[in-house]
Amino acid sequence: MTPAPAAAPRPRLLYIDDDAGLCRLVARGLSRRGFAVTTACDGRDGVSIATSEPFDAVAVDHYMPLQDGLETLEQLLALPSPPPVVYVTGSDESRLAVAALKAGAADYVVKSTADDFQDLLVSALKQAMDQVRLRRERDAAEHALAEANTRLEAVVARQEALLREVNHRVANSLQLIASLVHLQAGALEDEAARAA
Question: I want to staple 67 with a disulfide (CB 3.0 to 4.6 A). Which of 11, 18, 71, 195 is the partner?
């Protein structure tokens, strides 16, 4: 009997929100939906956590004390290998969505305590992680293609050098043969043989 394949690791999510009750609710709900959730109670704490450990995605609330979601988003995107960030707010203001998307957020979700919020958040997070995965795969394919092109150019250059060397040697051999034929023709007394 073959062993069952190992389960894929759960995507790691950092949820940053100053509402502790909602953090617990989201952590529970998203854990049931397959995420390993870490929470942070404000933007500074969230950036500190994201700096110290890797996450597959981050969800950031807009209205928080100390620094708002846009400041937090900016700091998260400045990390060396930033995870995709989904912007979350209780406000239905379209200007916040536009500002967050312009600042680099992968998506925007209006939060509520209803189950559809968590479904929308999961959908936005999965799409954001898929975009990152596809971008990394594209970058890896482009890198592999560039390496293959470099190797191919090296092979072509080597082949051209060999072809130049073969042409040079063939030209030298033909010159030698022509010289020998010319010497042989000079030693012949028969005019027909000399002409041939």
Answer: 71
- The parent domain of residue 122 ranges over 12-137
Is 1's pLDDT higher than 60? Answer: no
DSSP 113: S
The per-type count for the chain, helices as H runs and strands as E runs, is 6, 5
124 and 68 in a single domain? The answer is yes
pTM for the full predicted model: 0.69
Sign of CA dihedral 117, 114, 56, 86: positive
pLDDT digits (tens, 9 = 90+) for 141-192: 888 888 888 888 888 888 888 888 888 788 787 787 877 777 777 777 777 7
CATH number of the domain bearing residue 94: 3.40.50.2300
Separation of alpha carbons 91 and 16, rounded Å: 16
3-state secondary structure of 149: helix
**Per-residue pLDDT tens over the stretch 23-61:** 898 899 889 988 999 999 888 999 999 999 999 999 999
Q: Which of 116, 56, 109, 61 minimizes the C-alpha distance to 84?
A: 56
The backbone torsions φ and ψ at residue 80, rounded to the nearest 5 degrees and listed phi first, read -55, -40
